[in-house]
Amino acid sequence: MKIAVATEGNMVAEHFGHCSYYTLFEVENGEILSKTVIPNPGHQPGFLPGYLASLGVECVIARGMGARAMELFSQQGIETVTGVGGLVDEIVREYLKGNLRNQGGPCQHDHHHGC
Fold it and tell me: pTM value?
């Protein structure tokens, strides 16, 4: 399984589409096998869900995400977990333990950075 976390520094980014990086975790049997940081290729409506799907991502974690992105990820069969924050590595470990739940709904897009 591959997990993508919207990333700023070593923290979960405030908004999925506007982050600087995505941290990709390859996991198997609840263990992290590898971690790769890739730059955000740019926020274009509808692009990022297909892009991350093409990389094999099955779960996306971010603090905030728009309703359209959530819908597009759902259509790709990709789980979204929003409303969470903290250190990227710790958040993924909590997800793998089953302790991380979706804590937020979609962002209101007139408030991009207050998600």
Answer: 0.88
